[in-house]
Amino acid sequence: MSKVVNLSELYPGAHNDSVLVVQEALAQAVGLDFSSGPGVYGERTREAYAKWQQHLGFSGADADGLPGMQSLKKLGARFGFEVRGEGESGRVPSPVPGHGVTYRYGIQNPRYLAGYHTGDDYASMQGTSVVAVRDGSIQWSNDNGGAYGRWVGLQADNGRVYVYCHLWQRGVITGQQVRAGQQLGKVGATGNVTGPHLHFEDHPPGPFVYAHTRKPAW
Ligand SMILES: [Zn+2]
């Protein structure tokens, strides 16, 4: 399963990717039309969620349209998303869910200034989601990566800085807190590339320094 929903992000007025995943499931489960507010936990979404709770046999305060772990996990099991509770940190197997490394770190190649490939590449279609590999905060998110194109730096809770390069779209802003599995942007081909892929680097803490990398691990 590639999508992750954080329970802590589901509350009236919230606007985030977890809400959007739940709305997509509710559209199938109870016919929610969320075209007027995709990603926004508004009144319609709350009513639709209450219907889902009633469908599960909940009533009264247990069918108030405010998600709890039980009803949310059942929705996820049926419509293909994973649920994370408050304070849980899940293992994210890939920065591009469902995709593996297609060109490895460390391969000697004179095309690169460092003489070797400074990250792992994940080739995939333009628009494929890239996600935070750990909890952390966004150290930078801008279009100024030069050869790296549109890029995002994630300062992770293990002290490392993970760099997501060549993005088509960025979905986070500098300073934002993110959870493991949360979408950061979409795979693209910005900067110096031959085709769409994520170039993913693993750096020590501090400002970005070219080729101060290790084989990506998290
Ligand atoms: Zn690369």
From TrEMBL:
Positions of the M23ase beta-sheet core domain: 116-201
Pfam families assigned to the protein according to its UniProt record, in alphabetical order: Peptidase_M23 (PF01551)
Gene Ontology molecular function: any one: metalloendopeptidase activity
Highest taxon in the source lineage: Bacteria
CDD domains on file: M23_peptidase (cd12797)
Name this polypeptide is given: M23ase beta-sheet core domain-containing protein
Provenance organism: Streptomyces vietnamensis
